[in-house]
């Protein structure tokens, strides 16, 4: 039976934003929900890092700031969402995504395009014990 390792608010924004990295190395899988309201128009990208030290997702990846975009799976239809392309929200919506993070130590969200509305997100971590 899978157990929940944590349920954390991740982001509550009304502008361009990069979340602080969340340490997720104690879980195997992450479920992320994105809730758009007030006619949200934004692009949300998903990032991860395997480096030991906390990365800075607001800075470009480099030799000392190692991170990359990660793929997510839409739980509604099982389709893959390219992390670099991101999720485009164009109206009020709730999207639930899963990330397989077997080798990811840090996880974050980048809102790379924003024109209106509000975004909320939470993450839940699970393992197989």
How do the strands and helices of this protein lay out in sequence?
Elements: E1 3-13, E2 17-18, E3 22-23, E4 29-49, E5 68-69, E6 72-74, E7 80-81, E8 87-89, E9 93-100, E10 106-127
Antiparallel strand pairs: 1-10, 2-10, 3-10, 4-5, 4-8, 4-9, 4-10, 6-7, 6-9
In brief:
This protein is mainly beta and 129 residues long. 0% of the residues lie in helices and 59% in strands.
Task: Explain the overall architecture.
The chain has 129 residues and is mainly β. It has a single domain, classed as Jelly Rolls, CATH 2.60.120. It contains no helices and ten strands. Strands 1, 2, 3, 4, 5, 6, 7, 8, 9 and 10 form a ten-stranded antiparallel β-sheet that branches. A hairpin with a 5-residue loop joins strand 6 (72-74) and strand 7. It is globular, with a radius of gyration of 14 Å. It starts with a strand and ends with a strand.
Remind me, CATH topology?
A: Jelly Rolls
CATH architecture: Sandwich
Sketch the topology as an H/E string, one letter per element: EEEEEEEEEE
As residue ranges, the low-confidence spans are none
Instruction: Give the DSSP E fraction (strand runs of 2 or more residues).
Output: over 45%
Total helical elements: 0
Structural class of the secondary elements? mainly beta
Q: Which range best describes the helical content: under 10%, 10-25%, 25-40%, 40-55%, 55-70% or over 70%?
A: under 10%
Number of domains: 1
Shape: globular
Number of strands: 10
The residue-averaged pLDDT reads 83
> Taking Cα atoms only, what radius of gyration do you get, to the nearest Å?
14 Å
Name of the CATH first level: Mainly Beta
Q: What is the distance, rounded to the nearest whole angstrom, between the alpha carbons of the first and last residues?
A: 6 Å
Major beta sheet summary: 10 strands, antiparallel
